[in-house]
Amino acid sequence: MPALPEPSSPSSHPVQGRSIPRSPTVTVRRGERVDTVPTGTRVGALLPGEVGGVLVVAGLLGQKPVSLATPLVADATLAPLTTEHWEGRRIYARSVALVLLEAARRHWPECVVRLGPSRGRTQVVAFEGAAPAKLPVLAATLTAEMARVAAEDLPIRHETWMVEEAIFLFEQRGWREAARLLRHRRENTVPLVACGEIYALGMGPMLPSTAEVRGFTLTAAENHLLLDLGRRDPRNGVQAVAAAEASESSMERAHEAWLEAMGVRSVGDFGEACVSGQVSQLINVAEGFHEKRIGQIADDIAAAGDRIRIIAVAGPSSSGKTTFIRRLKVQLQIDGKNPLGLGLDDYYVDREKTVRDAAGELDFEALEALDLPLLQDHVRRLLAGEAVRTARYDFKTGRSHPEGGPVIQLRRGDVLMLEGIHGLNPALLGGIPRPGELFRVFVHPATTLAFDRLSRVSATDLRLLRRIVRDRHQRGYSAAENILRWPSVQAGERKHIFPFQAEADAVFDTSLIYEPAVLKVYAERYLLEVPASHPAFPTAHRLRLLIDQFVSIYPDHVPPTSLLREFIGGSGFEY
Q: For residue 341, what is the enclosing H or E element?
């Protein structure tokens, strides 16, 4: 392997470092406390190691997350960021993953190891070419090596490289995803993060060293390992119902197969495809893939003849359920089935009767927020062939109108279609459907692209970006409001949706590989509207860095039937 070039010296750069001396001291406000400290004092020196027994992983300088190793060079407000905050959990998770890659390099230097997508509370660790029978041994060996790296208390370094140097580094080490991503970078420099001899793209702050990496577990799955952060993941042990780990669906495998066939395995590959004029083809294939899968689901339902009487569709927030249902209805009608919709949201109880969560807030996502006796009575009568006047819920007044909806009746060839977050929960309809009469569909985005072997686009971030664009573009809610609301939305999903994934008869992956490039056109400005002093700023700042990695695609290219139109507007379906 050719030797890597030495990083350029400051004297070789046309832009020099500052020549005006800094003030010898800076003023730092921490809550009510104000101190004057020497310039260059590290953030970590002014913050506790834990807050309430929870690890401090970074500092909030203003509202911007920074490494605990960051020197203070100007007056600032400072606060700790722990793993209790979703941004803190991400910082800890990426630090653990970096330690994993360094441990794998030490033990298997020629093996390609990469972090894959999330599976519930765990994250996939892929060993290319590893036989499934060897995975339990790999898990045990890697766990021991990670413990050794942690015990060495190695510094996790943040370095700034010239882009050309970084491209050369990644190409020589076989990290083609990172090298391709950097080829279209606007800036001349790029932040990298390093642990031992492993270098990765810098996507934000990390732990200052490996010492605090502990409590994780690695287990063998079907063809990969699963990394669990253990007790330092706030999602572990706090759900009312234990979340089921998401299994890889056949649609996800097929999705990844056609991406492989098109040569789009990473964000860098996607950028290259866009620049080379393949935008229309990428969009057409992605949309065609969706349509084919929706048609397959409709065909499976139609093949059951008159046996299936109810279709229930459920998925987390901003998963694209509404458009999926519209498109599934079209495909069902092509197959000779007439779907009649029944929205679960119209069966809410009066607002004053709504149950409250642990914080005392109204819990509209609880199953008990629905008038189950009324819903079940209507479903029972519809299945018996009766004409039923359905319910309607007035969201402005918070009042339920048990007979305020339209009259519907199931006739031969009709199926009842239920939409709502509880569609997979067996308690929703109890024993009303006889065996084989109920077909459940779980809808969510699953397939995302990698930045490099350490980082990838998160499906959760994709849903949040969809929600930010839709609500700011169509409903007047700001990005800041949505970001602050997001943790409670996720908590509700973990409690009421994800535990019932195994009940689904079909899974539909709503991700469109090109959509971050389109969402960027809108989200960039909406995220910039979040003030630097706002509590939502850490997430807004990180999402801006995320979408900045994508080549922009303007919405003119998006077809009116696309699921993406649900979030950016201009849909060919009536909502």
A: strand 338-343
